[in-house]
Amino acid sequence: MSILTLKDATIKFGGLTAVNSVSFELNKGDLFGLIGPNGAGKTTCFNIITGVYEPTSGEILFNGKRITGTPSNKIAQLGICRTFQNIRLFQSMTSLENVVVGGFLRHKTVLGSALCYLPGAIKETEKLKLQALELLKLVDLDDVANTRSRDLPYGKQRRLEIARALATQPQLLLLDEPAAGMNPNEKKELLDMVKKIRDELGVTVLLIEHDMKFVMNLCEKIFVLDHGEEIAQGPPSEIRSNPKVIAAYLGEAV
Amino acid sequence: MKTFSVGDWTKSRLISVVVALIFCFLCQLAFGGDGLKIYLRLLFSLVGIYVTLAVSLNLINGITGQFSIGHAAFYQIGAYTAALLGSTYFSNMANHSSLLWLFMAMIFSAIVAGVAGFIVGLPSLRLRGDYLAVVTLGIGEIVNIIVKNQKSLGEAYGLSTAKYESTVFAVVLLAIICIAVSRNLLKTSHGLAFLAVREDEIASSAMGVNLTKVKVTAFVLGSAFAGAAGALYAHTKGFVGPADFSMDTSFLILTMVVLGGTGSITGTTCAAIVLFIIPEKMRDMHDLMLGVPIGVAIGIMVGVGMLKKIQDTFHGDGKVRFGMNIGSMVLGIIVAYGASKLLCTIHGLQTMVNGQLFRMPVLAITLVVVMLLRPQGIFGHNEFSWSWVQKLIGKKNVPEAEVAA
Ligand SMILES: Nc1ncnc2c1ncn2[C@@H]1O[C@H](COP(=O)(O)OP(=O)(O)O)[C@@H](O)[C@H]1O
Ligand SMILES: [Mg+2]
What we know:
The complex is a heterodimer.
Chain A: E1 2-13, E2 16-27, E3 31-35, H1 42-49, E4 57-62, E5 65-66, H2 72-78, E6 80-82, H3 95-103, H4 111-115, H5 119-138, H6 154-167, E7 172-176, H7 184-201, E8 204-208, H8 212-218, E9 221-226, E10 229-234, H9 236-241, H10 243-248
Parallel strand pairs in A: 3-8, 3-9, 6-7, 7-8
Antiparallel strand pairs in A: 1-2, 1-4, 4-5, 9-10
Chain B: H1 6-31, H2 38-63, H3 71-87, H4 91-95, H5 99-124, H6 130-148, E1 159-160, H7 168-187, H8 189-199, H9 201-206, H10 211-237, E2 239-240, H11 247-260, H12 265-281, E3 288-289, H13 291-313, H14 322-343, E4 352-353, H15 359-373, H16 386-392, H17 400-404
Antiparallel strand pairs in B: 1-2, 3-4
Bound molecules: adenosine-5'-diphosphate and magnesium ion.
């Protein structure tokens, strides 16, 4: 069953068409890769899916419902959450607090309860903290739960972003270059982690990644973007031998 | 992690409320009495009012990260609301000097100022950074100019209001409530969402935080507390005039927040107390020889220079070098003293100058010095807690979890 559908999604920034008539479809439980050279428009795709930008034309469907132009925070509530290519953690907050903010969107207590420090708000905060701790365990960061996120090394910051996104209990998780800046060992762990997220939590994953080996090993379906346009779409084996893809990545081993 | 229990909660709440009330009552006894201590009472009340103002602005500027610099506008709206009410509808009641009336005035002023905050905040909080600063600055001036030109509001002369003499109890209580509300907020997940907006708007929005709602809420809350503080001001002084709510007032409140550490309730509170008392106390400064301020300036430059040097040399190793830092400060003081003595022997520098002239420059210099040495404010993002003190004085064995708790 289709969970996310892009239909002829197009966005123009002034004279530049960053994404040009892109269409693809993700089914529930997919591990879907979005690749392409630098500046191809991958991050921009994420931005139009998550409501950072509204597409100039075309539409985006989530679970069959049109979400084009819905504000970011509503999108998160609907069940799509993302990480950022240029890490955007809440820097002066601890790892645990970062993840708690992720879980906050489904809060039930009113602000007044928090301002008066009533049992409802306290219990909810405790519940969110426990849930956050579980997620930190999942991404293997429970030992740094109380460390300020800006003090974490790069690889851990990326994993923390994943935990924070998972805290929103998404059906669809968008990962923007999650392996960037990681060493081979960390990449291996990340690969297992993403598989676990899909298999155990049942979250559909759409990810952007530059490391071809990583994408080919992980994803079951791949979409290739170049200059904002689709050049190929299919399983890794097809993509690997596609002459257009090879041309776009000129010289790189695919 | 400790888990929640209703019994503990009830007990700790009861104790805090009782302690707070006793504290207010003691303040009333110490500073609120009639007789010779009128000046002291006024000073104490104003300190309390400014603590409320600074902590409420900290909700907007520090915790939510929206740079608002027109806080005096809401203070003014609250003060005039209370003054109008006091001089018209409730004048008879006020003669009975009932606390109840005072609280009613406070609540009413808070509501009016909160509504004003909502009307101003809803459109302007969509603006970012500098734009919001300019708009709020403008609002502050507009409110003051409207008041100055409104006959029913006393124009430039102001309004006198029924005076409720002993406001000390209410002033302290309001300050405590304002601090408690901020603190409570930060202890719950709601508060973390506010902080998240300060840290990164795009990311918090992507996590499902409603930016407009959070910002407007912070703005309305902050404005409402400022309004309540205004009501107390009106009844402490028995008189309100536009001069008390000028841009200077807004900047004084802003300085308190920035100096104390944007986001830190403890820092803001301390800064409000110190920054209000210093200029007030300097009102009765004697005339001094011109050599003295010059000597002091040299001393400050030496001290600050040394501190800055220490900071740069040991950049980022995370240790606080108390010995060296205190040494630099002592050196600065000695240099200031010596230089003053020496300079005062020079004939040309023996001219007498009015000490009061230095009231405002002292604030400016403090601000410059703090921004040089600690751009994040004295307390940074830290709050007072015993484990934090332990960490500060270098006890290594405090586990991180404890510090966070
Ligand atoms: N807000 C924006 N305004 C103007 N141009 C933009 C904006 N966002 C992205 N672009 C442009 O769109 C193109 C695609 O960018 P991006 O999606 O970040 O590429 P990538 O595939 O490397 O993630 C780039 O040329 C970039 O400069
Ligand atoms: Mg990108």
